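Input/output pair, single chain:
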Amino acid sequence: MTKKMLTLLLATGIAVIFVATGVYAGTDVPETITMDYNQYTKRTKKPPKSKFVEFSHQKHNVDYKISCGDCHHDKDNKPLNLNVGDQVEKCVSCHTKLAKDKKNKKDIMALENAMHGNCRTCHKEVNKKAGDPKGMKGPAPASCSKCHISLKKK
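Output:
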């Protein structure tokens, strides 16, 4: 085999590896996630009063320039350095308590507390930067009814 042929085969092999890696790593992140954890039931057995909350990766990551690590973290609460296509666990994988503990209502392992803590803290900061000292009014929804849209007919 000539050096040219060997070089060509080597370059082709490397190109195939890069393409295969790119295809494997390029798993799509859903543009919108509906927060509808089927296992998660509120404290009553009545039907829900509001629509499921929808989260848009597109808006947060691309439009608002928020990095993945601002929301996704490890067990020590350190931001994960993620890239598009990386495997990411759902919040409920770690925040496994699906009902609040009456003795420890602020337990961060409760899914509801983790979600509210992550979203509302960031949204309040955005609103404070926009001029609202309390962080409740502004471009980012921070009150219950702004995210939990009522199903009741008006």
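The mean pLDDT is 82. The longest strand covers residues 32-34.
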